[in-house]
Amino acid sequence: MSDWFHELPVPWMALLVFGFTYMLALAIHAGVVALARSGHAKSFKAVSPGMLSPLGVIFGLFVAFTAAQVWSDNDRAGAAVIHEASALRTALVLAASFPGEPETKLHDLIRTYAHEAATVEWPEMVHRTASLNVTPRPIQEALELALSLPTVSPGQQAAQREIASAIEAALDARRQRIIVSRAEVNAVKWSCLFLQAICALLAIALVHCDDRLSSLLTMGLFATGMAASVLLIAAHDRPFVGQIAVTPEPLLQIISDPVTKR
């Protein structure tokens, strides 16, 4: 689906999804009724009601498989951001082992990186333009500084290793969130999902072609379930886009934490 759709507030997204689904169901109902009046009612009634169950099951499986991808992408996105913030905070705490200018510089570099990630990279991830080819300058300088710090005690040596490991973990988490930002339900999956839903709606209309009220009620119920499923998937499809997207709040907390302002 297009970026503009994912960026809509959830109420507007729901209005579009439910409106389109009900219009689709109504169009199918009207088409079947018109064909039944023209002399095809007997053929339509020959369609077995037993088809409805397997068609509904297949649609449910399509929804489950598609939703599984979406939930997995959202879990990975949230975990990557939390892991990145946690690694950066670890580096900030361990920087106290090198008091004075090294500690201050490490704090400034990490805080700058967190600010750039939240204000520059996040909009880029929304539009899938964030690059993995370039390492952000502040975090690269922080890693170089950590590796070049002179150590005079075993404690400082251990802290230096842990700081470097924490920064590398933050970089790995950054790579993960950028990769996940490019994930989405592809057009083939959406097409198959809608095609299966149309088949189910058409089967309902054919089976109930001699009873308009029953047809409308049954199709309306299925269309409501279909729209709710599509809305749920679409609202979570892009982890970093939309009203309920993963936010950079864990990184912003690093900037506002007193430990980063020593």
Give a short synopsis of this structure.
77% of the residues lie in helices and 0% in strands.
Write the layout of secondary structure elements.
Elements: H1 3-6, H2 10-45, H3 52-94, H4 101-126, H5 137-148, H6 154-181, H7 187-207, H8 212-236, H9 249-256
Description:
The protein has nine helices and no strands. It is an all-alpha fold and 262 residues long. The two termini are 46 Å apart.
Main beta-sheet annotation: none
The average pLDDT score comes to 90
Unreliable segments of 5+ consecutive residues: none
Helix content: over 70%
Distance between the termini: 46 Å
Total of DSSP H or I helical runs spanning 4+ residues: 9
Q: Shape, please?
A: rod-shaped
Run of helices and strands:
HHHHHHHHH
Beta-strand proportion: under 5%
- List how many beta strands DSSP finds: 0
Radius of gyration: 27 Å
Helical/strand content category: mainly alpha
Q: What characteristics describe this protein?
A:
262 residues; mainly alpha; 9 helices
